Structure prediction request, 45 residues.
Amino acid sequence: MLREIDFNLWVVEKPFKYFGLEVGTRMTIGRLIDGNRASRFHSAT
Prediction:
């Protein structure tokens, strides 16, 4: 589920198992506004 953590900044967190070890995963999504243009970025871990 997408969760807003600040203005134009969201995070998605999911449980993830790797060889039986709970490591989880997270994706951060943001939007940068420059005048009339908007850029989006994401970072997956």
User: Anything to note?
Assistant: The beta strands are 3-6, 9-14, 17-18, 21-22, 25-34, 37-44. The CA atoms of residues 3 and 11 lie 5 Å apart.
